């Protein structure tokens, strides 16, 4: 038995075969056999082999009469091996003279199924850096590996640095290798056969030992069919088919093995094979054939896999341009790659591993695209001669301009950083002083870090009117307008060309100087105006005036002339040549610093704490007045100030992961939409809290509230409460612009116009193909991830049947049946669904109607149940019906007995059964727990309500509801004696109970608070 069997694979290697054979003949170890398999070469390979081996009986030459591919060549050769160990050698490589001798010593001492040795890499057209990296990676020490770890170290994705799977870089016990090949496919396998063979071998191995210091295998890197030579889309399609065949073969082996660790490693193998295939798409397919090659990738690997790999290229290239200093950000190739990736459509209802991996990759890639886009824009910002900074602490609409540049301000940047904004906490800054200095932190940052010819400042609500048109101003000298949209940009010249023509040639531009005597109130001078300000302290103005006089005596007359004069400009808005701006800052900030060091603001209110910002408005006027008095030579201009009342972002809300990927951290997103007004916030918060308390933490919930008037205070309270759920993010969207011009009246007193907002979801959340829409009068006890992931096919939505409506259909008068068939035009009236809980297939709904089309339908509504009727009429036949427990309506005013019992037997039975353990309780109708604590399921509601910051507000509403109810009852029975109108109840607490001593002082008998506490007590105990 020879010590080694060397299986040499040969196909069309006429120029290399001789050297390979000679390297074997020159081995210092003579005890080996070489099995050379020629795979029906069409050149002179066989002749070279025969000539080199004809006098050497250590060589056995096997010739295939039909080309079978490398896998079957190796399989054939291994089956003929008789040596103690077997080595696989590619015919275009060779061995160093002492390689077999050194390797045998290591094999004999290792006592392992596999010995992984090192290689010496020779560059064949690749760069030295690439050659060195390849050699270093393949020669990393592997040590001793046993059992399932042999496979895991090569293919498991949990491993940090995985080993290579080169079957030619390992020596094997011959019986072990023959057993492994005997379990391999008998099919022709190409391109990824190395990976497949290594997978099977490693899965069967009991041990592997590293001998990476033995590097006598000489590998020629760049020869053969690998490399970067261009291929056609058709040829790539063949490659894709080959890779898929190898993946399928490995999958068959893994499933046959039944071993969990083999099945797990197979997933790693599969992903890596497709990654290598996609690399050919990226490097070897020309741009004009990439679309056709993409179709082949989808055909053989599936849409999720193909999309993930293309997004991987986007991620890698965008990351490079984001993070490498000195690399220009305007890289066209990355955007071309993104177009190819976007072309592969993967629906959101794909929930398998491939779908999850695709979404994670797309999320990261889009984030880096955003970063790249922002970096590119920031580079263009720096190139502008005029830079006007728009100070903002929240996301707002900003005109699409390279001159108007948004800056996120304040110490809160770290927690909620806007990647597309500049930041006042970068470079030299005083960002931490923003609560006191307001927009001045932007001015300080610009002073220290910006070098443009002009520097200017606006606010997210206030801009200059750069046109020559004069618009009507309010009593305070401002032009009032609504939103910052295209019309506003055109109206006020908020575009780069208009701004340039307006600014160039001037030294200082300010807002208009107004006569305070013309303003409302009695204050006619800046001094009087400041003194009249309710939340500011007059002594601060006096103090800063004295500081100016002390530090700059030549300004004393300007201080008094301004404070006792009548003209002033406001808002800290100005545009200056940089030299003038720098001189102003050198004058301003030391004054403010001295003021802050002397003033005691430790007990100031939030508004009073902003005193340095207020003082700066006055100080700028003093500086300006001094320049005018001393003939500074400025060419000046005054522009109107335009105040936008609704500066919030408009248009689409980008998927959360594109802006905050670190927040989501790889979890799959579930977008959940609610609609509410300010008055419904307590109930909305209770619903959201119940949802998150019971939702799977494996997901991240992008919660979007559609609204028009939710107050800042209520938003902050909601955000603070929901921070206890780190797998969620709360966002608000103002729908005012989208609904303007439409008549959204409803036909039910207990239905508000917010009910129509669900028709806006498909536009606002255009980045999502599936969205969960929930009413705000729910308690959610089930896991909404299960609801969101329901298999709804290409149906427009998923919902439960409406047991109330179906009960009305069966009423003897036939009115509801007539209405449903004629007015709604429903072919199957019993298909009517309840719209309080909806899984919306927004991708398909966009095809059905645009938002304007939906809103036109809504505006003409004369339906009983408004939007719900519209949805039923428009979506009929394309509805997936959910189990009844996902929308269990409570028994409002006895409707279960009065109406629900009329519903079809199957529907009513499902409703009844769902009441035992409802996943969602829906307080539909006029009877709500916060109005009547005796209503059905009220105790469940208050269990969640008491956790919210609005609990007391809900208690107050309940108390008011009780008082109103008592008044209504008194009015209804006004002809009855008063004593008989007062209901008599058995006392729950006796007169001498110690509890009375606690309750009576805080809730006296007869008060609303007393009635509320009693009502809640009954609700919590489950009493009616």
From TrEMBL:
Residues 387-626 form the DUF4422 domain. Keywords: Glycosyltransferase, Metal-binding, Transferase. Residues 5-132 form the Glycosyltransferase 2-like domain. GO terms for molecular function: glycosyltransferase activity; metal ion binding. PANTHER family: GLYCOSYLTRANSFERASE 8 DOMAIN-CONTAINING PROTEIN, LIPOPOLYSACCHARIDE 1,3-GALACTOSYLTRANSFERASE. This is DUF4422 domain-containing protein.
């Amino acid at each position: 038995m020879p010590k080694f069997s060397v299986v040499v694979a040969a196909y069309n290697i006429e120029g290399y075969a001789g050297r390979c054979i000679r390297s074997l003949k020159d081995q210092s170890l003579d005890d080996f056999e070489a099995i050379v398999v020629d795979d029906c070469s069409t050149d002179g390979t066989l002749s070279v082999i025969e000539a080199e081996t004809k006098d050497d009986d250590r060589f056995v030459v096997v010739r295939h009469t039909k080309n079978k591919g490398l896998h079957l060549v190796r399989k054939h050769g291994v089956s003929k091996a008789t040596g103690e160990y077997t080595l696989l050698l590619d015919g275009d490589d060779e061995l160093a003279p002492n390689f077999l001798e050194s390797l045998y010593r290591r094999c004999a001492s290792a006592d392992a199924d596999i010995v992984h040795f090192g290689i010496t890499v020779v560059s064949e057209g690749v760069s030295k850096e690439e050659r060195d990296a390849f050699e270093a990676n393949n020669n990393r020490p592997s040590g001793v590996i046993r059992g399932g770890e042999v496979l895991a170290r090569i293919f498991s994705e949990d491993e940090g640095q995985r080993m290579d799977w080169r079957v030619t870089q390992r020596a094997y016990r011959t019986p072990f290798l023959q057993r492994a090949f005997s379990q391999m496919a008998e099919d022709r396998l190409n391109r990824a056969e190395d990976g497949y063979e290594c997978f099977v071998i490693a899965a069967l191995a009991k041990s592997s030992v590293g001998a990476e210091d033995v590097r006598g295998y000489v590998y020629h890197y760049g020869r053969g069919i690998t490399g970067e030579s261009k291929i056609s889309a058709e040829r790539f399609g063949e490659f894709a088919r080959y890779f898929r065949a190898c993946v399928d073969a490995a999958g068959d082996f893994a499933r046959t093995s039944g071993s969990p660790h083999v099945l797990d490693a197979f997933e790693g193998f599969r992903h890596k094979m497709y990654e290598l295939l996609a690399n050919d798409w990226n490097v070897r397919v020309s741009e004009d054939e990439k679309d056709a090659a993409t179709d082949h990738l989808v055909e053989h690997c599936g849409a999720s896999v193909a999309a993930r790999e293309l997004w991987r290229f986007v991620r890698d290239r965008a990351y490079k341009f984001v993070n490498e200093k000195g690399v220009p950000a305007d890289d066209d190739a990355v955007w071309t790659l993104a177009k190819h990736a976007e072309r592969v459509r993967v629906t959101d209802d794909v929930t398998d591993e491939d779908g999850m991996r695709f979404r994670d990759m797309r999320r990261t890639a889009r984030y880096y695209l955003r970063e790249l886009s922002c970096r590119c824009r920031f580079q263009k910002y720096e190139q502008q001669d005029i830079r006007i900074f728009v100070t903002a602490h929240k996301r707002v609409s900003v005109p699409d301009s390279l001159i108007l540049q948004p800056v996120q301000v304040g110490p809160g940047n770290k927690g909620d950083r806007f990647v597309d904004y500049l930041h006042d906490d970068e470079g030299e800054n005083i960002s931490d002083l923003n609560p006191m200095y307001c927009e001045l932190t932007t001015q300080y940052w610009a002073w220290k870090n910006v070098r443009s010819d002009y520097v200017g400042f606006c606010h997210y609500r206030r801009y200059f009117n750069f046109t020559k048109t004069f618009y009507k101003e309010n009593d305070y000298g401002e032009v009032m307008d609504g939103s910052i949209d295209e019309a506003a940009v055109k109206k006020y010249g908020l575009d780069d060309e208009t701004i340039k023509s307006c600014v160039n040639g001037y030294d200082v531009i300010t807002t208009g100087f107004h006569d305070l005597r013309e303003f409302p109130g009695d204050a006619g001078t800046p001094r009087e105006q400041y003194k009249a300000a309710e939340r500011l302290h007059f002594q601060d103005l006096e103090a800063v005036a004295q500081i100016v006089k002390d530090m700059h005596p030549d300004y004393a007359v300007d201080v008094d002339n301004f404070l006792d004069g009548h003209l002033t400009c406001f808002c800290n808005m100005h545009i200056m040549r940089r030299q003038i701006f720098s001189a102003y800052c050198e004058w301003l900030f030391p004054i403010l610093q001295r003021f802050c060091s002397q003033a005691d603001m430790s007990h100031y209110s939030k508004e009073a704490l902003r005193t340095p910002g207020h003082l700066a408005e006055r100080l700028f006027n003093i500086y300006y007045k001094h320049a005018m008095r001393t003939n500074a030579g400025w060419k000046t201009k005054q522009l109107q100030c335009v105040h936008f009342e609704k500066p919030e972002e408009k248009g689409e809300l980008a998927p959360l992961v594109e802006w905050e990927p670190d927040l989501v951290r790889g979890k799959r997103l579930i977008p959940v939409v609610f609609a509410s007004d300010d008055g419904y916030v307590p109930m909305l918060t209770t619903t959201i809290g119940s949802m998150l308390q019971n939702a799977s933490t494996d997901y991240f919930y992008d919660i979007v509230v559609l609204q028009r008037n939710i107050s800042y205070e209520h938003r902050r309270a909601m955000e603070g409460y929901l921070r206890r759920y780190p797998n969620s993010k709360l966002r608000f969207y103002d729908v005012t612009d989208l609904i303007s011009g439409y008549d959204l009246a409803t036909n039910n007193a207990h239905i508000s116009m917010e009910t129509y907002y669900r028709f806006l979801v498909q536009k606002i959340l255009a980045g999502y193909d599936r969205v969960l829409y929930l009413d705000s009068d729910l308690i959610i006890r089930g896991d909404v991830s299960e609801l969101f992931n329901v298999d709804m096919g290409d149906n427009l939505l998923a919902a439960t049947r409406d047991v109330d409506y179906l009960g009305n259909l069966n009423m003897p008068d036939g009115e509801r049946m007539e209405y449903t068939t004629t007015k709604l035009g429903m072919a199957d009236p019993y298909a009517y669904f309840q719209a309080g809980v909806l899984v919306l297939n927004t991708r398909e709904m966009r095809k059905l109607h645009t938002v304007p089309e939906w809103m036109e339908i809504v505006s003409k509504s004369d339906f009983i149940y408004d939007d719900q009727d519209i949805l039923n009429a428009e979506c009929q036949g394309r509805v997936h019906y959910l189990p009844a427990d996902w929308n269990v309506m409570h028994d409002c005013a006895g409707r279960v007995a009065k109406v629900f019992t009329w519903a079809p037997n199957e529907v009513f039975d499902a409703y009844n059964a769902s009441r035992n353990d409802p996943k969602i309780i829906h307080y539909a109708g006029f009877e709500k727990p916060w109005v009547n604590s005796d209503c059905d399921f009220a105790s469940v509601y208050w269990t969640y309500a008491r956790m919210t910051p609005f609990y007391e507000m809900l208690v107050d509403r309940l108390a008011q509801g009780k008082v109103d109810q008592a008044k209504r009852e008194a009015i209804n029975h006004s002809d009855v004696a008063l004593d008989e109108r007062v209901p008599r109840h058995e006392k729950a607490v006796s007169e001498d109970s110690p509890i009375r001593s606690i309750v009576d002082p805080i809730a006296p008998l007869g008060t609303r608070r007393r009635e509320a506490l009693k009502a809640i007590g009954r609700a919590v105990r489950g009493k009616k």
